[in-house]
Amino acid sequence: MTQIICSPTKYIQGHGEIRKLGDYCLQLGSNRAFAIVDPYIFSMYKEDILHSFEVNDIHLIMREFKGECSLNQVDEIVLELGLKDAEVILGIGGGKTLDTAKAVSHMAGLPVVIVPTVASTDAPCSALSVLYTDEGDFDYYLPLKRNPDMVIADIDIIAKAPARLLAAGMGDALSTYYEARACRQSGAVTHAGGTSTIAAFSLARACLDTLLAEGESALLDVKQGIISSAVEHIVEANIYLSGVGFESGGLAAAHAIHNGLTLHEECRNVLHGEKVAFATIVQLVLEKASEDEIAQVIAFCKKVSLPVTLKELGITSSDMDKLMVVAEASCSQDSPMKNMPFEVQSVDVLEAILATDKRGY
After folding, report:
1. The pTM is what?
2. What is the pLDDT of residues 179-215, one digit of tens each?
3. Is 233 considered catalytic here?
4. Which helix H or strand E contains 81, and what residues bound it?
5. Residue 264 catalytic?
6. Which of 191, 233, 264, 272 is catalytic?
7. Is 258 a catalytic site residue?
8. What distance in Å separates the CA atoms of residue 235 and residue 122, rounded to the nearest whole number?
């Protein structure tokens, strides 16, 4: 099987990067830019963004992201682009803003610069957009032709986001190594279109090592308003190491169980990475991983306030039928559960969820 690794063409992380976006667009040879910007970022950083484009004599149109990351909105923006003669798309903000920008660049055939303002997921680097209906319900995954041309992380902005978002990003990143390991054992085809590479697996391992070594201190620093080297390292782990690690290393049980948990109404307000963290422990239980490994992951989750019990996920009812729905959905035909190195049945998942819940207390 062909081995494939994919990643953004360039990943840039530093301080004050929001004031250099015009410079980076100029590197792409673009003189007309169209930016889709999160409303909060628009209100707080509009002048900083505009200045770098004015200095470089690049024409910039900024559009506040409103509504949903839906196909209708993407089509509307693509039509608008046709009238503005843009040469590069920028997405500046959180997940739905970035996914909209990636989808627009895909449809319009233009390069895209992604500027995440939180480090709550590993999605910014990926060649994938999650589309929703105009009402906010999940619609479908849109595979993109390529990864972003640039991903630019401004530590000064990301560190000001709520600490819970950084912790959720660590929860999403936590699964990267364990899922990549499962895919490596099974020989699964990853989102990159081939089997994992040494490089992708090494990045996944580096992601886990960084989380375990510096995650707790980074979270404490963000809560105190300190931008430390630990914060910088965790931002890189959450966005880049996990982003390339999951896409080219592969997904397995942890994200399959996360997808099942989205169907349980009691945990719908729980963040993506928070659900993934719990599901990562479930995967380890399914694998019959060593007691030391399971204990290490549970201890880490507790240190950074990630859920280790059903109650912490918001699930307080003892309705086994609802949990079985979660288990069955995690084993659906198109689920990444198929990437595990052994066959997993829904009853196995249910038993592992219950066992994980007991371990968390």
Report:
1. 0.95
2. 999 999 999 999 999 999 999 999 999 999 999 999 9
3. no
4. helix 71-84
5. no
6. 272
7. yes
8. 10
